[in-house]
Amino acid sequence: ELVLDQDLHLEQVSAWPQSPLQLGQVSGLARDSDSNLVIFHRGDHYWGDDSFNSQARYQQRSLGPIQQSTILVVDPSKGNILKASGRNMFYMPHGITTDEENNYWVTDVALHQVLKVSSDGRDRTLVALGEAFTPGSDNNHFCKPTDVAVDTKTGNIFVSDGYCNARILKFSAEGRYLSEWGAGSSDRRRRIPFRIPHSLVFLPDRQEVCVADRENGRIQCFIAETGEFVKEIKKEEFGGKVFAITYKLAGDGGLIFAVNGESPYRSAPVSGFVINYSTKNVLDTFSPTTKEFKMPHDIVETGDGSVFVGDAVSKSVFKFTTEKLHRSV
Ligand SMILES: O=C(N[C@@H](O)C(=O)O)c1ccccc1
Questions:
Q1: ∠ CA(157), CA(119), CA(100), 5° rounding?
Q2: Pairing relation of β-strands 81-85 and 104-108?
Q3: How many angstroms is it from 47 CA to the middle of ligand 1?
Q4: How far is the CA of 94 from the centre of ligand 1 (A)?
Q5: Is residue 5 over pLDDT 70?
Q6: CA 190 to centroid of ligand 1, rounded, Å
Q7: C-alpha span between 14 and 12 (Å, rounded)
Q8: Span 92-100, average pLDDT
Q9: How does the average pLDDT of the chain come out, rounded?
Q10: pTM for the full predicted model
Q11: 85 lines ligand 1 (CB under 6 A)
Q12: ipTM entry
């Protein structure tokens, strides 16, 4: 169990996975109801500068969907693949999360859609939000939606929308539109809009939803019920970009885990951060020893104190554990 003590330090488990995972660009990570790691990757598709035109329309539709299994369920201790699904469904995977019934909620930035998919291996699409390949910004159109968070109390889902919109939307578990909101204002003077709301996490003990507001290099948190702004966490050491966040209950509060990204203007090392939600203090920074982070793109923790980071450029997943656990192994 992770505690909030000051000497918390995450170290890479360099021998994980025990055998290589054949991954494309890793875009999303999630944890399933058995505390297994779920990896959402792009197989042989990749997001390059010519993947979309200036109207945000996907240009490689003629290639068809990815034929490899894009959703892999992996054993967190050894890294072997337990289940593989998601073939012939997706064009440009992005975010993934699981709900209380262990369904997958995923976003695909080429489809501009949010899909609820069964995890029974039959890949049944249970809910489809947005119109395939059609960007937009009304109640039933997204523009490169990036992630989903599930309110475990109400079953409602939140969508971060997206690369070419600047909002968070709320839907019921069945996909009925409920509400939406934009950035919160941390300074009374002016409200700076979201610039790529890129990753979402629900805080079960506080019923809040937090967003990694990527190009603003900040994390903002809101009341899930109302969308009311609660707080902002913005740190010099983030540099200019925060790519992904996740959350873990711990001791006397909660921990936010985040990964930043390279920013042309601000030189800050690309790393992971452990932040005390209440005090906003950075308790730890971490990065791999076997090879450098290239573009850490999502982060998730699995019950036993392990933290996983998926990298969209190095096409790999890194495992970290707290030193104490690591030493005792
Ligand atoms: O942000 C980008 N990609 C990553 O977030 C991702 O791969 O999800 C990107 C933007 C423009 C061109 C090419 C890639």
A1: 40
A2: unpaired
A3: 6
A4: 10
A5: no
A6: 28
A7: 5
A8: 98
A9: 94
A10: 0.96
A11: no
A12: 0.96
